[in-house]
Amino acid sequence: MTRFPSTPDLDLLFRPRSVAVAGASTNVDSPGHDYLEAIKRQGFSGPIYPINPKADTVAGLRAYPSLREVPGQVDLVISCVPAPAVPELVEHCGEKGVRFLHLFTGRFSETGDAEAARLEQAIARRAAELGVRILGPNGMGLYHPAGGLSFRPDLPTDRGGVAFLSQSGNNAVEVITRGNARGLAFGKVVNYGNGLDITPGELLRYLADDPETTVIGGYVEGVPDGRGFYEGLRAAAARKPVIIHKAGRTRAGARSAASHTAALAGQAELWSTVLRQAGAIEARNQDQLLDLMVGAALLRPPAGRRIAIVGGGGGRSVQSADAAEENGFEVVPLPHAVRERVRERAPMLADWVGNPVDQSILAGSGLSSNGLLELMLEGDHYDLAIANVGEDWFFGRPDAADRLKHACGRLAAIAAASTKPVAVVLGPTETRNRDHRALVDEVRDDFVARGIAVFPSVERAAFALGRLVQAAERRRA
Amino acid sequence: MTRFPSTPDLDLLFRPRSVAVAGASTNVDSPGHDYLEAIKRQGFSGPIYPINPKADTVAGLRAYPSLREVPGQVDLVISCVPAPAVPELVEHCGEKGVRFLHLFTGRFSETGDAEAARLEQAIARRAAELGVRILGPNGMGLYHPAGGLSFRPDLPTDRGGVAFLSQSGNNAVEVITRGNARGLAFGKVVNYGNGLDITPGELLRYLADDPETTVIGGYVEGVPDGRGFYEGLRAAAARKPVIIHKAGRTRAGARSAASHTAALAGQAELWSTVLRQAGAIEARNQDQLLDLMVGAALLRPPAGRRIAIVGGGGGRSVQSADAAEENGFEVVPLPHAVRERVRERAPMLADWVGNPVDQSILAGSGLSSNGLLELMLEGDHYDLAIANVGEDWFFGRPDAADRLKHACGRLAAIAAASTKPVAVVLGPTETRNRDHRALVDEVRDDFVARGIAVFPSVERAAFALGRLVQAAERRRA
Asked: Any idea where the CoA-binding domain is (chains A, B) (predicted)?
């Protein structure tokens, strides 16, 4: 199955001209209904054919008793039929000249049952003979807003250049939902499940050359084709940032991965080495994956490691310095030139203020941490910045909402105008005060709408930035 | 200054019978107003005396031109006067027989100015001569809801047994706010600032014996009195869980810490060793600190390391297994006895389902992950459990709100009824769908109101549980 078709071959998978759903269902709580709703809501522009022998219409669309009865050409078939019905469906796909069959259908090799694994292999062989490429089985398939494709009706409709490959379906949904809330606009997302025919390696090769794709994320438990995966990874990482979350690193995780997607998961150290050698950035959990994708998609790569840090009180300053230095940054002391600029505007601060800038000593001085951030970003003293919003400080003051919005608006303007990357830290909204929660959510949404990279803690911001600097240095070397 | 008074000496600090605020201000955006509001809102039961030579009333309370004019006895004075005015205030405290002077007043040694440092030392000597104990300077002081004390008007009024010592004021506010949202009810919280007289070591000795205190958290950058701190730590950790976040670990962090609270911060490894030898649990950042405090306060210590994990789809199962094993747990395969119970109710799952329990294979089987959690907690197969809510799965289904609330209600009941600790994982509400955000917030608040420990990721839950198991094993050894 290790084939590498020239890259345009998969274009039609992501932009089919027509889609049929085999096993389409009138039950609104079933995948056979969800796919139809999902594709309709994404505004799929071609014909959609529900296949259902017992219904005239499904989800408001005219249904057909069999794939063979569908009047026009079908590029992509999504299968929700049970496993034993798949061989017949493959035959129909062959007769109909279908190019891609996505098997949402599961209960194959991932169950650990030998008979189910044999059926899976038989399907692979027959589909290859008929020229039908298979995505899956046991995967949710395709989410590609620009192509009108989605695997769940409630997913966002924004279009962008962030691609994501995921062995796990629920993980794909989590990453899309959470990533979108943090400003990631997705392009091609594939939950390839058992990876029987179309492998993550082949998908990576395709995405490497895909002009729509600017950043690639991946979640793998194991890979069906190790060499192909490595080569795909290397090809992609040479052209754009590639971030991989490898799960199933431990004995227990590998055992669980085996029953999840029939993948043989390997050891942690081996995988870290392979990823590094291929030029990919490794994430150890979903939070890191998201932070790295946000950083890669929304921030320019910094030119160096000299970091300016502002905002938050004294405690946050100390914690920020720790986080920055532990992730490889140089917390360069405030240079003389900046100090003299401070002296002009707030003389009593000039010999006290440092980097990180402790917001609590600025009160009443005439200089805010935004003001200091602007001074520090001017000239060539720093390569990048982290700005802590320090929202808890505002909540202790009168007119908290107005002050917080004003400060964040100015920070967003500074970050957007700077040629250097500026990461914003705005904490998770952990408070019992519902007004404060709503306010922080509103402010975060505003940053995100303006394309600013927001992180929930300074440690997570510093980690992501540190890895991205490392990757940029490796690419330059 | 290394004195260890017998522990009852500090009782009056936390439960003063009367409080005066020197530097009380009619400006609602000033600390001299905040302290009065904060104490009033916490329902302080004794007299509160604003000291202000120019106003008749401050914050609705009768003001006095000088501490000497106050009619009754004053146990605690909170100072918001500028540094140069403190020596006179100390004299007044002596005359008036004041027991504790909390210096919110800053701009002493933390500025790096030699003259300011000399003034600080002179104040310490004179106060000692007069028998006035000093808290601070450069610290927000006391938050103790049961004693009617608080340093900010907007902090929660719940009373509980979680003590917290913090060198940083903004860090104390963040930990109180975030901790409270996660179910921590605080007892004695102290932001001791420069720790000139009352040191964290003395406070730890006091909290070790304090019957109100069940769990102790701490945030330190450096300590004014190393040996006293170590001894306090050891005394406290022998009696209750003590979690310490040491910041200023790096060169940059230490430099920043020095200007923040005049503390000499040391090296990371040395501190880790000292904390471990003293029996404390180390947190490396605020998230870890909160997770460990939540675990210590809301969960029983597990009897062993055999962990049951349920909920979420296949991807989450694999990630959960990784997180558990990487934090020292044994992800024990589903025992025969449980498998046979599954066979009775869902025969086709019996040979497929494992630990972690993949929620996505349960659909339509008649068994939910809650059902499996109950079966796994029965008998002696497991010592503790992590339950992933897997909220994203619900959002893809009809009646998501009802189903999610029902499942979480049942999970809360199982966790509350079990003699084994059950940690719940409910993700951060990262979605652009505001209804979903509100729903997750509501469900989380319900868990918290029922005393359940909720973590925002399975990695954070596993980390906290792993460290707490380790600490429990050390205490038993």
From this structure: 13-108
DSSP structure string for A423-437? EEE------S-HHHH
A267 contact B CB<8A: no
CA angle A219, A223, A225 (to 5 degrees): 140
Radius of gyration of chain A (CA): 25
Which strand ranges, in their side-by-side order, compose the sheet holding A48-51? A48-51, A19-22, A76-79, A100-103, A133-135
Cross-strand partners of B82 = none
Select from A370, A368, A339 the least CA-distant residue to A352.
Answer: A339
Of A171, A177, A326, Cβ closest to residue B315: A171
Q: What is the CA radius of gyration of chain B?
A: 25
Q: In terms of DSSP bridges, do strands A242-246 and A281-283 run parallel, antiparallel, or are they unpaired?
A: parallel
Per-residue pLDDT tens for B128-160? 999 999 999 999 999 999 999 999 999 999 999
Query: Which residues are CB-neighbours of B273 under 8 A, at least 6 positions away?
Result: none
Cis peptide bond N-terminal to A137, omega within 30: yes
CB contacts, 8 Å: B319 with chain A:
171, 247, 253, 285-286
Residue range B369-410, pLDDT digits in tens: 999 999 999 989 999 999 999 998 888 888 999 999 999 999
- Of A28, A153, A252, nearest to B325 by CB-CB distance is A252
CATH superfamily, with its number, for domain A300-476: Succinyl-CoA synthetase domains (3.40.50.261)
Q: Report the DSSP beta bridge partners of residue A218.
A: A165, A244
Q: Is A388 on the interface with B (CB under 8 A)?
A: no
**CA distance to partner chain A, nearest, from residue B463 (Å):** 13
Q: Which CATH topology does A7-296 take?
A: Rossmann fold (3.40.50)
Amino acid (one-letter) located at A41: R
pLDDT digits (tens, 9 = 90+) for B72-89: 999 999 999 999 999 999
CB B427 within 8 Å of CB B455: no
Domains B7-296 and B301-476 belong to one CATH topology:
yes
B301-476: CATH homologous superfamily? Succinyl-CoA synthetase domains (3.40.50.261)
- Give contacts of A 136-175 with B, CB under 8 A: 152-154, 156, 166-174
